[in-house]
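Exercise: predict the fold of this chain.
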Amino acid sequence: MFEYDASLTFKEEPTLMSRITNRSIARLAVSFSTAALVAVATALPSFADPQLTVGAGSQSTVGITFGAFGVTLNGSEQTPTTSFTFADIVDSRGSGAGWNLSLTLAQFTDVALDTLPLSSLIVKNTPIINKIDPTSSATGTITSLLIPGAALDTGAGQKLLSAAVAGGMGSYSISRVNLGMTLPATTKAGVYTSVATVSLNAVP
C-alpha cells in the first residue's frame, strides 16, 4: 500500500504587468500627468481684458438770437413784442458736472445816448426743452429760470437755464421765448440797442 500525495504545485509564469515595477508605474503616472498638463495648457486661449476709451467732448452753443422789432409813437404807452431763440445746447464733456446758460442784457441806448428804462423787456412764456438725441439726460434735469413777467434788460447777469449735477448730458433744443416791451409816452424816437452777453458755464 502506498500513499498518494494529491497536492499540486503551480509555478506562476510572470506576465507583462507583473514585470512592471512600482518605479515604472510611478514613471508612467508622471508621464500621464505631464501629458494632461500640456493638454490643459494648450487648451487655454490667450486674451486681453476688454477696454473702452471714451474721450471727453465739450459744451457748445452759439447763443441767443433776438428778433428785431419796432413801433410808431402815438402819444400813449406802447407795448411792442418780439422773441428770441436759443441755439441748440450740447454737453458732451462726459463729466455730469451740470451747466448753466446765463444772459446779461444791458440797458437799451440809442446813438444820442437816450435810454429806455431798465427792466423794459419782459418774458412772456417759459420755453419748452426737448431732447435732440433720445439717449440724452431727461429734460427734467434742466430747469428753465425764464418765468413770465421776469425782466431781461436789468444790466445784471442772470441764469436762463440750469442743468443739475448728473443731468443735462447730451443735446437739447429750446423753444422760442416771447418777449414784450413797455415804452412810456415820453420815449424819444431813435434806434435803441442793447448789448447781450451769453455764456454757457460748466456748473449748475
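Check your answer against the key: The first strand starts at residue 59 and ends at 60.
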